[in-house]
Amino acid sequence: MATVYLICGKLCCGKSTYAKRLKEAHRAVVLSADEIMLAVFGLYAGERHDEYAANVRAYLFEKSLELIQTDVSVILDWGFWTKAARCEAKAFYQSRGIECELHYLDINDEVWLARIDQRNQSVLAGKTTAYIVDGALAAKFEARFEPPAKDEADVWISG
Q1: Based on the structure, what is the number of domains in the chain?
Q2: Is the CB of residue 56 less than 8 Å from the CB of residue 119?
Q3: What pTM was estimated for this model as a whole?
Q4: 11, CA 20 to 30 Å: which among 17, 38, 94, 158?
């Protein structure tokens, strides 16, 4: 039976790397909101970024159902920064009788800041396509992120 894996964690915490490992382990498909946003809008979606990202996530929820109907497991790699977003996703799948797991990647602030710096350096050097995490984006994230409670996550990864 197909399973949906929700990958939760801070910006630059290793979600995409973890999603790739899960992909190999479970023969699953990774659906990444950032991947689509970057392909369509590049690094700058402007003032409408949040609106576009919400539309992409809605599309990916529906697309995931197509994959699940063909017995393909799905990994949703887009952070699930708020409890409301996590509850919405779980309810979406559970109401359809689809197994859903929340995997949380928990990292401390020192590691987080080092990874942000490493990613920014890679983007600036042209080695990867990702969003630059400047002070404004980091502050926006800090204001929005709600770490899950221990009993909310099915898999808790500290690192």
Answers
A1: 1
A2: no
A3: 0.90
A4: 94
